[in-house]
Each structure stands twice: as structure tokens, then as C-alpha cells.
Amino acid sequence: MSQSQQLTSLLSNATLNRLQHMRLRPFRRFTNKSRGQHEHGRGGSSNEFADFRDYVAGDDMRNVDWNIFARLNRPYVKLYRQEEDMHVVLLVDASKSMDFDGKFLKAQQLAAAIAMMGIQATERISIQAFAGQQLQRLDPCTGRASLQKIFSFVERLGVGGQVPVEKGIEQLQRYHKGRGMVVILSDFLTMNADLKSAFNRLFSTGLEIYGIQILAPVERNPELTGDLRFVDSETEQLLDVTAVGGLLEIYHEYRSGLENDLTVLCQQRSGRFISVDSTETVEGVLFDTMKRKGWVK
Questions:
Q1: What crossing angle do the helices spanning 103-120 and 147-156 adopt, rounded to 10°?
Q2: Is the pTM of this model over 0.85?
Q3: Partner of 169 for a Cys bridge, out of 103, 198, 201, 215, CB 3.0 to 4.6 A?
Q4: In the chain, which ranges are continuous DSSP H helix?
Q5: 3-state DSSP call for residue 242?
Q6: What CA–CA distance (Å, rounded) separates 215 from 104?
């Protein structure tokens, strides 16, 4: 990769060079029938030998191992590892709450990086962002020739409006086809969201669920004193508070509980969950956090 030409404003060429040698690590490898770089449990048509099994009527005679037949007088069929493609779906929260302290930029950077790893592994990549009434969607694409199209799409994503995560998942399901993994990049700060049902619907379509929560430092550790007025960034509803001590305790309990719930929801559906700080470098997330957590190899 040429160092003189910057491929995207979201990631440095040095970061892109490191990503060329990294791959996503799905748990169950939900894959489709076309070829890719993920082994499937069924026999396939690659050249890498996997095992033998007894011959049954209808098997392709070209796969019979005649050397074993000559020794044992019993036909065995050679099995080969089948390499199949995985559909990597990136679901980006572009609602107004993400337009704060670098959260949306971090989501864009991570989306571009994950797409890059998928493309390098010949996976199919599709991207959808949920915000207001306007749907932002990139149809499935594959091959290195698609990289510039992917980067341009992610760079142009707009932010605004109020769409909770479960509604974004509902929008995704209207268009998505194919098995693989979905990576949801969001702050997940929505009230009364039925994420369990939404995640169940995604998992039932053959998608492992991976969540990346992006929070600003002040959302992780707010420092509040005196009388305050809170304004909801999406609904613009007001809340006046005079005693913040008890409120902070409730908030930290809620945030910790939400993180634990999301971790369990993803793990129960063959995925993973991490929560990152919007001020953390994208390289730190990719090459430290995600690697330590087993997201990538």
C-alpha cells in the first residue's frame, strides 16, 4: 500500500497496513454457500483434505479413495474442508445521541476498520446506519476493489434524529439476507429498549451478534454538582435535578447493569461485547482491546 496516497480520512495508511494481516474471529462461523475463508462443518470442494467417511449410494465416485479400497475391500469417501463466505453486517448508530464528544467518529473509524478486515478475508460486507427518516445503506459488496466505495460511504454518513437501537435492527432486517455476523456500533443509551427480542430476531436469521458500545468520558464518569437541568439530546425533554448525589449512584448502577446485560445478550447469541471510550485511539481499540478480547486474530 502506497504511503503517499491516503485511502481514507478515517484511518492512517499505517493502520490499514496492519489491518491487512488481521481477520475477524466469529465463534460459530455462520456462513453461506459461496466460497470464502471460513471452514464449515460439511464436506466441501477445496483441495485441503479433512477426513474419511463410509461410502453411501449417490456419492461422487471421484471422491472414493481407491488405495484404501484395495487394502480393506471397503469404499471410503474423502472429505475436504469447505471454505465458505461470511456476511459481515455493520449496523451503525447515527442517532443524535452519538453526535457528542467524538462518539460518531469512533463508530465510523471502527466500521471502516472492521470492513477492511472483512474485505481482506473475501467476506461480503454491508453497512447500514440508523438515524432519522432517511435510511443510509450500502448493499453487500466484496473484493478489494470495493474498499474505496466502502470508505467513501462510511465517511459520508450523516448523524441526527432519534431512532433507538431496536428500531435500527428492525430496519436492518427488512433488507438483510445471508448468514454471518452483525457488528452493532452504538452507545446503546435508549430507554426501555427490548434488546433481547431484537437480538433474538437477528440471531434467528443466522447472524452472530457483536456489540461495541461507544461512550464519552463524561458518560462514563459524570461529575455533577449543584442544581442541574438535563436536556435529552434526541427528544429535547427537560429534567431539573436538585440532589445529584443519589442520581449519580443510580446512573452508575444503570450503566453497569446495561453493560452486563449487553455482554450476556451477545454471548448467548454466539457473539461478544466491548465498551470503549470515545477518546481512546482507534489503534488502541483494534490492536489491544479487540485482540485481547478475541475479536480478531
A1: 170
A2: no
A3: 198
A4: 13-19, 66-72, 103-120, 147-156, 165-175, 195-204, 217-220, 244-267, 282-284, 290-292
A5: coil
A6: 10
Summarised one tens digit per residue, pLDDT across range 114-155 is 999 999 888 899 999 998 777 799 999 998 899 999 999 999
Distance of CA 132 to the CA centre of its chain: 21
Can you read off the three cell numbers belonging to residue 23? 481477520
Is residue 59 very low, low, confident or very high in pLDDT (cuts 50, 70, 90)? Answer: low
**In this structure, what DSSP letter does residue 24 have?**
B
Half-sphere exposure of 205 (CA within 13 A, CB side): 21
Grid cell listed for 292: 485481547
Set of cell numbers at residue 108: 465510523
DSSP secondary-structure letter at 223?
-
Distance CA 168, CA 175 (A): 12
Cα-trace Rg, the chain: 23
Q: Please name the amino acid found at residue 82.
A: Q
